Amino acid sequence: EEDIVEATVRNAFAQGAEEVHIVDNASTDATVDRAVAAGAVLAETFDTAVYDERVRILLMNSVVARRSYACGADHVWWLWLDADEFPEGHGGTTVADYLGTLDRRFPVVGSTYYNHFPSGAPQYISGFHPLDFQPLCERYVPLRQRFCDLPHWKHPLQRFDRRGPFLLAIDGFHTATLRSPDPVIEPDIGLNTHHVQYRDEAVTRARMDLLCGSLSRNGFNDALGHRTIQRRYDSLEAVYARRWDDVNNQRGEEPMLGVQPEPWPNPSRTHRWYSDEDLAAARAAWEGRKPS
User: Fold this and answer.
1) Cα–Cα nearest to 260, from 147, 174, 122, 141
2) Residues in the chain with pLDDT values less than 50
């Protein structure tokens, strides 16, 4: 994730995070170095023969428990993220501002999920918010809502309460459980998450080849029914050719083709951690490197 992780960390801080902790699955590229340079703390590193979501979530829950108990606070909000996810508060507010309006009876907050798609070049430049390069997106709502009655694909805001049962995130942090008779309730209006799975074409293709280019590499996840990565890989040609009718929308268990991306409204309301001049200079530098 070395092409995106710096921006992911900086966006978390721009959204009001006080600390950013990363759990690393033995990255061999510059992912960890770039995350730490952006201000993150390397909280855990583990090595597995194949990607195992259950191990990842176990270790991330452990980081949440250790840091929360150690800090001494009675309540700690955690924002769970994958490296390609950029959350914000409702209406362009920050996550921290959103939390300032939230009633204490809600220990978890869901997020409406938007898959973004490249519509031109550059598809992405490292270090910047993906909205500046990929304004086209489509709200992701699966055919079967498994985690709540609202269109929330994930529930990334989860609160630690020192004097209550530990809120345990499940695989993919799609939701969380208290393991108690009390229900976990959430507000109707939550966060919005920009999901940026397709970045610079060459970088994305190289990464996806490593993930799915051999039959054995993704077999473990296939056996568990986690086929979304393979479907994403199979859609690469259609995505970068902007053949939207041929892109797998991943809404159901069976292959479903066709997306209808539209521009994100009012992108200027989303918080940035850089100036317009910084963005213009990066675009100019990219143009200078582009093959003639």
Assistant:
1) 141
2) none
Dist CA 149 CA 2 (whole Å): 35
CA–CA distance, 199 with 133 (Å, rounded to integer): 9
* Dihedral angle computed from the Cα positions of residues 114, 117, 121 and 122, in that order, rounded to the nearest 10 degrees: 50
| Measured distance CA(32)–CA(22) in Å, rounded | 8
Query: How far from the centroid of its chain's Cα atoms is residue 263's Cα?
Result: 19
pTM of the complete model beyond 0.85? yes
Residue ranges of E strands in the chain: 21-24, 41-45, 75-79, 85-88, 108-116, 136-140, 154-161, 168-169, 176-177, 191-195, 262-263
Would you state the structure tokens that stand for residue 215, as one six-digit string?
């039959």
Q: How far apart are CA 214 and CA 195, in angstroms?
A: 25
Taking the C-alpha atoms of residue 150 and residue 185, their distance in angstroms, rounded to an integer, is: 12
Give the angle 8-284-39 at the CA atoms, nearest 5°. 25
CA gap 282, 127 in Å, rounded: 10
Residue 277 and residue 285 in contact, taking contact as beta carbons nearer than 8 Å: no
pLDDT digit string, tens, across residues 89-108? 988 899 999 999 999 999 99
- Sign of dihedral through CA atoms 217, 221, 223, 227? negative
CB of 250 closer than 8 Å to CB of 256: yes
With residue 53 as reference, give the H or E element that holds it.
Answer: helix 53-71
Q: Are 107 and 161 in contact (CB under 8 A)?
A: yes
